[in-house]
Amino acid sequence: MGSELVGDLAPGATPLTEEERDGLIPSVQTRAELNELEAANIDLATAWALGRGRAIAQRNIVSIAGLLQLHRRMFSQTWRWAGQIRLTDKNLGVPKEQIRVDLKALCDDVIYQIAHASYPPDELAVRFHHRLVSVHPFANGNGRFGRLAADILISRLGGKPFAWGGKSLDRAGRSRAAYISALQHADAGEISSLLGFARSTS
Questions:
Q1: What is the dihedral of CA 28, 139, 123, 12, to 10 degrees?
Q2: Helical axes 142-156 vs 64-75, angle rounded to 10°
Q3: pLDDT score recorded for residue 112
Q4: Residue 31: what pLDDT?
Q5: Given this model, what pLDDT does residue 158 score?
Q6: What is the mean pLDDT of each successive set of 10 residues along the chain, which is 202 residues long?
Q7: Which of 142, 170, 181 is nearest to 8 (CA)?
Q8: Number of Cβ atoms within 10 Å of the Cβ of 175
Q9: Three-class secondary structure of residue 162 per DSSP
Q10: What is the C-alpha end-to-end distance of the chain, expressed in Å?
């Protein structure tokens, strides 16, 4: 992978190791090309998750197997390690040894929260998203993965998928800055900013 792909990261993005970069399936020269390839792969996964394959996605989204399957669907045409829990520690997320434990705890918590209506549906799904991003289970694509997972969950709960600011969050800009700020507020225990951002269109 060329140096452009290594250095040209959006704010808040997680750098990849050399070994992780070597897992790139197609040959691309720039980060813009990589973003385009990933976006096409994600579009297919979204159609599967929220279209005709919806029942399968919804049934499994609060299980480790279902989460891994979703990430694999989103990135299998781009990264050889799609759907595999990261093997390295990052600047974000829990230590790699803790990922499976935390994902299991998250899934168990969400199953309980659904059964007991612990939160309104939007808040439940947004909290699910925040915890997924906080765990940061994969080498790449955690934000996009977490957003689609939340869209699947809110659909399962009878709501509509979120707008997530109405713009791409893959590049530097006002929407990405607002998203990262909302995540940081959620880290501090204040979920309302992220909840508002998830439903915002601009």
A1: -70
A2: 120
A3: 98
A4: 78
A5: 92
A6: 47 77 84 87 92 70 96 95 96 96 98 98 98 97 96 94 87 86 97 97 82
A7: 170
A8: 19
A9: coil
A10: 34
16 φ, ψ (degrees, to nearest 5): -100, 150
Question: In whole angstroms, what is the distance from residue 108 CA to residue 113 CA?
Answer: 9
pLDDT at 14: 73
**Using alpha carbons only, what angle is made at residue 145 by residues 117 and 165, rounded to the nearest 5 degrees?**
80
The domain made up of 3-161 has a fold known as Fic-like fold (1.10.3290)
Q: What is the pLDDT of residue 3?
A: 39
Instruction: Give the separation between CA 162 and CA 198, rounded to whole angstroms.
Output: 5
Does residue 169 contact residue 187 with C-beta atoms inside 8 Å? Answer: no
Residues contacting residue 129 through CB under 8 Å, at least 6 positions apart: 146, 147, 149, 150, 194, 198
Alpha helices by DSSP H, the chain: 3-7, 18-21, 31-50, 54-60, 64-75, 99-116, 121-135, 142-156, 174-187, 192-199
8 CB-side CA count, 13 A: 14
Domain boundaries, the chain: 3-161
Handedness of CA 80, 104, 169, 45 (dihedral sign): positive
pLDDT of amino acid 2: 42
β-strand partners of 79: 24
Which residues, at least 6 apart from 13, have a Cβ–Cβ distance to it below 8 Å? none
